[in-house]
Amino acid sequence: MSVLLDPHSLANRPLLDGIQGNILKSHGRPHTANVFIHCRPNHVDEAKTWLHSLVEGEDALIQSGYAQLRSNLLWKENQAIDTGLFACIHISAAGYRYLFGDGKNTELADKPFQRGMKASAALLNDPDPESWESGFQAEIHFMLLLAYTHKDLLEASVDNVNRAIQSFADVTTIAWGCALKNAEGAGIEHFGYVDGISQPLFFEDEWETYKKNNNIKDEARDIKDEKDKDTIIKFDPRAAKELVLVKDPLSPKDPNAWGSYFVFRKLEQNVKGFKQEEAILAGILGFREEDDKERAGAMLVGRAEDGSPIELDKKPGLINSALLNNFAYQSGNNAKCPFHGHTRKTNPRVGPVEEGVQVANNRVMARRGIPYGNRTDDPNDGNIYNKPTDKVGLLFMSYQASIKDQFEFVQTQANDTQEGIDPVIGQGDRSAKGVFCPEWGLTEPTKKASFAQFVNLKGGEYFFAPSMSFLKNIHKG
Ligand code: HEM
Start and end of every Dyp-type peroxidase C-terminal domain (predicted)? Predict the structure, then answer.
């Protein structure tokens, strides 16, 4: 039986009405503001009233999962339409303690969530929280995510929120996000690589689009003809909702009350440093030919700048590369993609195989990150020296059922030096060398090289995105 949800089925309506948007499907708007909020002591009732006002009454900002799907559909049908402001709220363990005292917090059982991100600093090799940006050093209770197509209207909405909370809370910091696109219109991160290609899929219509984009013929598993070998499912992104959703324990009577654990990390990127080191690596690997121009970077990330997986070709430019995700790594073989390449480290694509198909493993998260910071240069112009060294980066965000088994597991793997540290996000011993195979497709000869760290954490927190019924009833208890 398919684990996927039919977004049009009436049977799924209560589930989608019961969760906040952005969890099962990205809100998709290009301008965002993460507003981090600290409540002053002795204003619990006001804080609860405000949380309730986000979902009921004329000023309600938050969209349910169902309402968000409707607005995504409208946008698809008519991109001229204004689908309006999107909002969703996230509460930290400190926030739950503020609202209810110590008792209820423990019902949200995820241990890293309960302790907060600062307590995980040693485990994750994060910089000392005392060195984080001051707005993240503060005790954060809530994070309201606002998103809009229009930047000016987003700014006006943030002003309104500021006014609404000023009697009981302070904004500790605002992280502004802004989508970055390459010349083909695909979303990229600041190093210039297409991002957001590989995601778990929860809906039937997403799967149909995915099959088309990846030229997958569903029944093709038995195809014997060599020419059709690329139409077989090699990596299956289909996922059950439980990969990211857990029952909201603070709304126990409602069978449709689901929430999701949420990770926020502000990751600064030193783009110039990364590009310089990428060029040095190309030298170490002896790359001179035009064909190898992008290969050093693609070996670090796992994909070329246009999204082409290095496991499939030594050059960029594969058809539909910005969408191409139907590939697996050859087990035990690093001749094409190094074991420590970012996409391989964070999702090695090995796991249980059902009917010959490798199903999405249970470590991946629904990634919802967006770049931050302004650029005056073209990220893909091939010029190293006009690239920024700071003030730009990724607002990493992810939804998962378990912060311990998903985000923290993946970050810990990225830090692991045994097969080489993840050159993009690894934190720890950066002198540790990883193995590279300079001849694409051949395991010999090999070269070993280290790679310095160019992604640095500026602060973050763990949250829970509560159910709609929790928010609708919060002012009562
Ligand atoms: C500034 C920091 C980061 C940059 C520049 C970055 C960049 C990228 C890029 C370019 C891709 C390939 C596009 C795609 O397959 O979707 C990717 C994939 C991915 N990243 Fe990151 N990333 C960053 C942070 C993180 C963090 C903190 C994690 C988790 C701890 C993470 C986990 C993943 C995962 C799971 C994938 C998909 C791998 C796959 O399924 O093939 N990334 N990242």
Answer: 255-422
